[in-house]
Hints:
The complex is a heterodimer. By secondary structure, chain A is mainly α. Chain A is 76% helix and 1% strand. Chain A contains 13 helices and two strands. Chain B folds into two domains: 6-231, P-loop containing nucleotide triphosphate hydrolases (Rossmann fold, 3-Layer(aba) Sandwich); 241-353, CATH 2.40.50.140. In chain B, the strands form four sheets. A six-stranded mixed β-sheet of chain B has the order 6-7-8-3-9-10, with helices on both faces. In chain B, α3 crosses α4. The longest helix of chain B is centred in the middle third of the chain and has 18 residues, at 168-185. Chains A and B meet through α8 and α9 of A and β6 and α2 of B. Chain B: This is Spermidine/putrescine import ATP-binding protein PotA. Chain B: It comes from Coprococcus catus GD/7. Chain B: Its EC number is 7.6.2.11.
Amino acid sequence: MNNKKKKNMLPALAMAGPVSVWMILFVTIPMLYIIYISFMSRGVFGDVVYKFSTESYKTILDPTYFKVILKSLKAAGITTILCLLLGYPLAYIIAHKPKDTAAKLITLIMIPFWTNSLMRLNSWLLLFQTSGPINNFLVGTGIVKEPITFIYTDGLVLIGLITNMLPFAVLPLYSTIEKLDKSLIEASADLGASAATTFMRVTLPITFPGIFSAIILVFIPSLGIYTVTDMLGGGKILYIGNIIKNQFGSIRNWPLGAALSVMLIVITMLLIFIYTRFAKIEDMEVV
Amino acid sequence: MNNPIISLEGVEKRFGSNLVVKKMNLEIAEGEFLTLLGPSGCGKTTTLRMIAGFEEASAGVIKVEGERIEDKEPFQRNVNTVFQNYALFPHMTVFNNVAYGLTIKKVPKPEIQERVMEMLRLVQLEGFEKRKPDELSGGQKQRVAIARALVNRPKVLLLDEPLGALDLKLRKQMQIELKRLQKKLGITFIYVTHDQEEALTMSDRIAVMHDGVLEQLDVPMEIYEHPKTKFVAGFIGESNIFDGKVTDKKDNVLTVQTEAGMMQVCGADFEVGEEMHVAIRPEYMDVSKTPVEGFDLPGTVKDFIYQGTVVKTALDIKNGQEIKYSRFEQDTDIAEGNQVYVYWRPEKAVAIKKSM
């Protein structure tokens, strides 16, 4: 009996083997190294001194850093909510179009996603700068007297984040809404439910896995992204991603950067844990 | 008909330039089991969906209990539907699926509990109330779908090929169960199917549809014994159909000349010289080794087809057509290649008017 069990394990091990090696090499080891660095201390010249210290973690709790972390969480949260509010109706409309129209619309959504992000972000700056077309229009038509300062503000960063993240919300939402059997909607109407009731009691619960995928796919990257904040915030607006980048870059405080990274990883893992608790893992739809 | 529960008056449905239901007139009595029967694409499902409210009629009037409903939304109509693929809500338990319509109508909780459990008992699904739809077999899902519709006590239950996905044995069993259920509850059933045997087994009346046209509306026996159109004769059961012209008329017996030869059939309102069709069931045909009076229908025995309960004999006749007759046992005195003469009792064949 025991022998048989061992024999049966072999194919499974053989299958898991290569994947495990890959995961250990490219995910586990780098992650352990980040955790290891986060408990070291910083040398005078910005080098890593291999001496145990919890200094970096204490620094995170310092109000200056803590505020940035909270601000980043808030920005990522708002981005996620707005992406869902914009993305769900969009995905719903696309999913109810004929197949070929839907494919074209999805391509349209993907185009900005395939465009170089520097180009996209620069065009936002050009559009919104003091002498840009939007300000020219507002001043020219007399809506405002003075040009409005859009660039390097939290507002523009938010616009940048939303436009950057919207495809990540639309795609998983589209794929779950598209799979929703239309006869379920008809059945609900047949049983006396109005369109609003049908949406709340049938459409929304059944597309919930898509909603959760969208949350994860939008929230996690928006929390760590630094290009958008760097460019549209003009380096004045610091989110957690910028701070991590700076610690590994110009400031050269690797242990602090590592500690901040660990914190991001923990938040991510918490979210995924919640996801697996609330939605069945086999429903997870990552496009 | 006195106070039909549902009536369709000149109902049409157009998809673009395609007229899929043409000038449909239909009255359905309370407590009746009516089947819309026809091949796929004949407009039977579209007709059902117009009654349910999922499709808007392009023309005509649909009434439930004398009240026009064409402009009402599905949720405002007092009819319920059993869908072809069951359409059970996958995120709800069996209990919640069945209770759905009642919770929407804000029926008090104790009453919901009572009515749902009573309905599950009726469809023999007691003890399944906590299961999810994907933990049920096809037949069980079907019962849940029926319970979910019936718990609302609809005036009319619409069933869109509800047994289509089940295997033959289960389908036969469910046919009988459904018919019993309908008799017991006295609810009007409108049943869509392409399976003529199913229609004959279950229905009080059958409406045979073809190309969007209601070809014949009658009780199963009439549909089978006296098809009114060539299509109905060919679609319901097996028939040998001949196209011909009336050459003589004596009392009600017509002599008809066809390409295959001469034959006789009973028919009242036909004129000498009129073009028409003759349909004859395989089981009503006879063969003789010598010519029979009134008939001149020679054929060559091609082969014998054993089908368990009957043996079919295929004959090649003069016009190149192949016709079949059936017997409980194989004829011992004829063999493949023999020349035989086909005949029948004229009253067993059906004279059908040539359609316009």
